[in-house]
């Protein structure tokens, strides 16, 4: 997701409200939100057409708690608004008074979502977003954050990050699977069920929910790129940068530790390694951190030699 300046400020303000809601949440488990999008009602303060979105795919409910419920509700609202362009524009219209946008939202969702979710969404629509689309992306980012906070509090954020990266590599290497998960003619519920079949009993519940949301509401994102983005968000939550490493063969645990320590010294910050094996590079490593690429592979050195000989 890319946000322009106004949207970045709006997202930062909304995230504060989200974290406040999660911090004030009761410790006792709450009943997970329904996976169906909240049924909207007609608001009297606007002429915006009442949305009639198709029910989104069900989400898994293995874990329960305030962060889970809030994340699920925000994802359901994203799926609802995604199919209602006019409503999205009305809520993201920065020329309208914030109070008007708040009344529209409350008229649609009051009683359909929890009070916590409504307060977070009110904070969202009262801010000035660069575009209505970025407002929608912002709500989805907040849903992701809520689930990542849950994993962080449970001490499972490392596992979620690793699972997202590994599933992305699996999808990247399986064209048939990628097509099955991105086919626009396949119902969202069927794609969500496929995700649960593939990783439901093998991955953290947070991982499953994040992947389901990406699959049922891609919003123009390529699946593999979206999975990489999710893994990076998890890494950032841990205050670490990500180094994408391509190796000709598997790295031992000791080799990974030495490489991480070296990169930590180079970049003066903690670095998380995401290692992919590709025999085609013949030997050595290719390391990417942000926009910087360190190509120490055998094929890379051969390419450099060819360029020198050609020059």
Automatic annotation (TrEMBL):
Role of this protein: F(1)F(0) ATP synthase produces ATP from ADP in the presence of a proton or sodium gradient. F-type ATPases consist of two structural domains, F(1) containing the extramembraneous catalytic core and F(0) containing the membrane proton channel, linked together by a central stalk and a peripheral stalk. During catalysis, ATP synthesis in the catalytic domain of F(1) is coupled via a rotary mechanism of the central stalk subunits to proton translocation. This protein is part of the stalk that links CF(0) to CF(1). It either transmits conformational changes from CF(0) to CF(1) or is implicated in proton conduction.
Gene Ontology annotations for the cellular component aspect, listed alphabetically: plasma membrane; proton-transporting ATP synthase complex
Membrane topology: Peripheral membrane protein
PANTHER family xref list: ATP SYNTHASE DELTA CHAIN
One function term, GO molecular function aspect: proton-transporting ATP synthase activity, rotational mechanism
Pfam families the UniProt entry points to: OSCP
Key word Ion transport present: yes
Family the UniProt entry places it in: Belongs to the ATPase delta chain family.
Membrane-crossing segments per the record: none
Record gene name: atpH
InterPro entries on file: ATPase_OSCP/d_CS, ATPase_OSCP/dsu
Biased composition range(s): Low complexity: 25-43
Protein name: ATP synthase subunit delta
Subcellular location: Cell membrane; Membrane
Region (Disordered): 25-64
Coarse class of the protein's main subcellular location: membrane
Keywords (A to Z) from UniProt: ATP synthesis, Cell membrane, CF(1), Hydrogen ion transport, Ion transport, Membrane, Transport
């Amino acid at each position: 997701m890319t946000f322009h300046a106004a949207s970045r400020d709006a997202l930062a303000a909304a995230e504060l409200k989200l974290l406040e809601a999660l911090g004030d949440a009761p410790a006792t488990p709450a009943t997970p939100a329904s996976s169906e999008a909240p049924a909207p009602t007609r608001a009297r303060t606007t002429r915006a057409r009442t949305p009639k979105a198709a029910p989104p795919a069900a989400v898994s409910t293995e874990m329960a708690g305030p962060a889970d419920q809030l994340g699920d509700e925000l994802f359901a609202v994203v799926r609802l608004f995604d199919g209602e362009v006019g409503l999205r524009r009305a809520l993201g219209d920065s020329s309208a008074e914030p109070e008007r946008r708040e009344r529209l939202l409350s008229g649609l969702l009051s009683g359909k979502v929890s009070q916590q979710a409504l307060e977070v969404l009110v904070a969202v629509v009262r801010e000035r977003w660069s575009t209505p689309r970025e407002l929608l992306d912002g709500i989805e980012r907040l849903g992701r954050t809520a689930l990542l906070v849950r994993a962080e509090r449970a001490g499972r954020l490392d596992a979620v990050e690793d699972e997202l990266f590994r599933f992305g590599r699996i999808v990247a290497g399986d064209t048939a699977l990628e097509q099955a998960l991105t086919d626009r003619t396949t119902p969202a519920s069927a794609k969500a069920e496929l995700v649960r079949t593939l990783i439901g009993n093998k991955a953290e519940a947070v991982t499953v929910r994040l992947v389901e949301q990406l699959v049922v509401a891609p919003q123009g994102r390529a699946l593999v790129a979206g999975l990489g983005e999710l893994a990076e968000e998890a890494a950032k939550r841990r205050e670490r940068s990500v180094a994408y490493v391509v190796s000709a063969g598997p790295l031992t645990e000791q080799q990974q530790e030495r490489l991480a320590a070296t990169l930590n010294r180079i970049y003066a910050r903690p670095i998380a390694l995401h290692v992919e094996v590709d025999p085609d590079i013949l030997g050595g490593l290719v390391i990417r951190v942000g926009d910087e690429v360190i190509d120490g592979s055998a094929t890379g050195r051969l390419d450099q030699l060819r360029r020198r000989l050609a020059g």
